[in-house]
Every structure is written in C-alpha cells, then in structure tokens.
Design goal:
This protein has 426 residues and is of the alpha+beta class. Helix content is 48%, strand content 12%. The strands form five sheets. Strands 3-11-10 form a three-stranded antiparallel sheet, with no helix packed on it. Strands 4-8-7 form a three-stranded antiparallel sheet, covered by helices on one side. Strands 1-2 form a two-stranded antiparallel sheet. Helix 2 crosses helix 3 and helix 2 packs across helix 5. The chain starts with a strand and ends with a helix. It catalyses: L-lysyl(4)-[histone H3] + 3 S-adenosyl-L-methionine = N(6),N(6),N(6)-trimethyl-L-lysyl(4)-[histone H3] + 3 S-adenosyl-L-homocysteine + 3 H(+). One of its GO terms (biological process) is methylation.
C-alpha cells in the first residue's frame, strides 16, 4: 500500500512530513511501532509491560521484580525485549532508573538485534540531540543521567556501548529528551514513553491538523480536518491550555525553538486565557503545582478542600475561561469523582465544557474525553436528556480523533444506547 505521507524539506523548520494526496478528517495517515518503549515508572505496577493495558492484578517478573504482565503469554512475548533489561535491572536493584534511562537502554538493546528493526522515514542517527542549544544546567542533568545509563548498561555487558559506537550515551539521552513521545491510553492518561523516529519528522503547531492516538504501543496519526495534497502535517507537542508566553517558554526549553504558529503570533486567545484581574488569578496559578502533587499522591480530601477554597464565590472575579481557574476546576472534578461526590463532580465538570469548546475548536481527543466524563456523571445522576446530548457531542469528535474501531468509541456508543433505551427511544 502506498504511503499517505512523505518526508520533505520544510522551509525554516528543517525536515517535515506532508500529505501525498487529499485527506479527509478522521483518516489514519500513518501507523508506527516504536523503535523502543517502556512503561512509565509511575505506572509500573498497573500497566502490562508487554501490551500496555491496565489491570488491577499483574504477574511480576520473578527475576527483576519490576516488569509486570497480564499473563504468561504477554511475558513470553516481551522476553526478547526484556531479557537484557532484566539483567540490568537486577544489577542496580533496589534502584530503578528513570524512564529516559530505561528507554535509552532499550534503544541500545534493540540496535543489537538489527533483524528486528523496521524501515523508517527518519533514522535514529538523523535525530537532532540539540546538545549545543541546551542550557548548561540541562546539560549537567543529562550528564548525570548519562553516567547512570553507562552503569546500567555496563552491568549487562561491559562492552555494550562500544558495540554501538554511533550512540554516545549523552547524545542518545539528549535525542530521547527531544524526540520521545508519551504513550497514553484512550483517555490520554500517561502509561509509557517510546521513540518513533519517523514521527519525529512532524513539526509542531498549537492548532495542528493531526493528532496522535495509541492502541497499546502502536501510534496512529489521524487527521482532524481535511488536508490538501502536499500540505504539511502538524501535531501539538504540548498541551495548549496555557497562554502564549508559557507555551513558547515550554517549547523553547524542551524542543529548542520559538513557536511562530498563527495562534502564538496573534496571541488571540490570551485575553480569554488570562481573563480577570491578575491579582485575582495569581493565587490559582501559584497553587497548581501543590494541587497536582496532591493529585499524584491521591490526597483527594485535601485536594478538594483547597480547590473549593480557591474556587469559592469570592473568586468570581476570575472568569471560568481563565486557564488557571479551568485547571483548578478540573482538579476539583477529579477529586470529587475519587471521593464519590457525584453532584459536586457534575457541577465542576459542567463548568469546564464551555472553555474546552472555546480552546479546542477543531476536533481534539481531550475535548471528547471531557465531554464523555461529564456525560457519564449526567447519566449516573439520571439527567438522561443532558447525557444523550453530551454523548452525541463527544461522539462527533471521537469518531474523528479516535475512530469507530477504538475501544473508547465503542464504550461511548454503548453508553449512548443505554441512555436512549432508558428514555424509551430506539
């Protein structure tokens, strides 16, 4: 089958990907398997290290005590990738290296088995490390990780790094930092990291014409609008629910370029994102790191208490579209769901829908998932008409961003059918 994409020299950006023919919204343009991938450490106990599916109970590797699997079938399937890693993990036990070190090591292990490699539009050697663009502090951080990577590899085979002379540990880690992708489940929750060299050709736009969704570790590049032949394909490297200055700062720090997309150049959304008086929304902005830590640690009661205080009626000077208020409202929603406070969860969820609609005018998976979260609450609380309407809005997006074959889309359709049945509709 002919490729729907091709590599090209993109003026001002270096390399890029473009469409080879007319593309319809929702079309899968490219599917890729990772050169290497690993489950994120924070999900290591809940996600199968072979198929990347979530399970409450997983079998643990009896040797390294780190890798976990659904069953013996998944364990056997993963062994070719895990056998070298298993020895390295045992050598540094009880420490577990960072995600980036584990991913870099898996890349080295994969390169030692060239017969397993698939053709790529872009090779690992061509990926830019951006070492010369990095601040000294960041280079020092990577140097420490490089020492850890060398120790991690050395216990597996003292000559391992010499077997791949084109990959200096520092350069490899820098390439990983700039080019790896977060592997997420259908609800965009992080489960792992992976390197997909061909997809590193995609350039960034804060209003992209494509999105990436994962099924297990398989990456699918999908169009979110109609695309003309030879038109460049773009994705968003970062979340866009931030004002222009913060988006540009994040992109410069992590990817070493200043975004010149239309959204950044016009700053047209900044008045909405920074709505209200700065002195009113600054406490919300400053509280977010602490709130996210409470979320990570599962301190739901404290999280909700602080969110309620920040979002109290006295905080009405900050409109709902303000991105910091929106983030705090999202965190409050998450806390309410985990505390089974359903009415409050629906209250907070409903507040987010209009800002999400404004910030995601094109089909975007984050918007669809937010609609689905609210629809489930509406359905559970018996607001069937509202639930049906919200699910239909979610489906109109998800059929493009996820496709009808995706498990989450199937779940949405089943929920929509339940609503209709309960309302006495066909």
């Amino acid at each position: 089958m002919a490729l729907k994409v091709e590599r090209f020299a993109c003026p001002g950006k270096g390399n890029g990907l473009r469409a080879t023919h007319s593309v319809q919204a929702g079309e899968v343009l490219y599917s890729a398997e990772p050169l290497a991938c690993c489950v994120s450490n924070k999900c290591a106990k809940d996600v199968c290290h072979s198929c990347f599916s979530r399970h409450e109970s997983l079998l643990r590797c009896s040797q390294c005590k780190v890798a976990r699997y659904c069953n013996i079938t998944c364990q056997k399937k993963a062994w070719s990738d895990h056998k070298r890693e298993c020895q390295s993990l045992r050598s540094v036990h009880p420490r577990v290296p960072t995600d980036s070190v584990r991913l870099a090591a898996r890349i080295v292990f994969r390169l030692l088995a060239p017969s397993q490699l698939s053709p790529e539009l872009y090779s690992l050697e061509e990926l830019d490390s951006h070492l010369n663009d990095m601040a000294e502090e960041k280079r020092e951080g990577l140097s420490k990780l490089s020492s850890m990577l060398q120790l991690y590899l050395q216990h597996n085979n003292p000559d391992l790094t010499q077997d791949t002379p084109t990959l200096h540990p520092l350069s490899l880690l820098a390439k990983v930092a700039c080019n790896c992708f977060t592997i997420s489940d259908g609800e965009l929750q992080e489960i792992g990291v992976g390197l997909y060299p061909s997809m590193s050709l995609l350039n960034h736009d804060c209003r992209p014409n494509c999105v990436m969704l994962f099924q297990g570790t398989t990456l699918h590049l999908r169009s979110v609008r109609d695309i003309h032949p030879t038109e460049e394909l773009t994705i968003s490297y970062i979340g866009v629910l931030s004002p222009t200055r913060e988006r540009r700062a994040q992109l410069l720090d992590q990817y070493h370029f200043i975004c010149q997309c239309q959204l950044c150049s016009t700053t047209c959304l900044d008045p909405l994102m920074l709505g209200g008086e700065e002195e009113a929304w600054t406490p919300l902005k400053e509280a977010i790191p602490r709130l996210e830590m409470l979320q990570t640690n599962g301190n739901w009661e404290e999280l909700l208490q602080v969110c309620n205080s920040l979002l109290a009626p006295g905080g009405g000077a900050v409109p709902g579209g303000n991105v910091y208020r929106l983030r705090v409202t999202d965190l409050a929603l998450d806390a309410c769901v985990n505390l089974a406070q359903w009415d409050s969860a629906l209250h907070y969820g409903a507040e987010t829908l209009e800002p999400y609609r404004q910030y995601y005018p094109a089909p975007h998976p984050a918007h669809a998932i937010q609609l689905m979260r609210v629809a489930k609450l509406q359905h559970f609380l018996g607001h069937l008409k509202d639930a049906e309407q919200t699910l239909r809005l979610a489906y109109d997006i998800m059929r493009i961003t996820h496709g009808n074959e995706h498990a989450l889309t199937s779940e949405l359709i089943r929920k929509l059918e339940e609503c209709r049945a309960e309302m006495g509709r066909d």
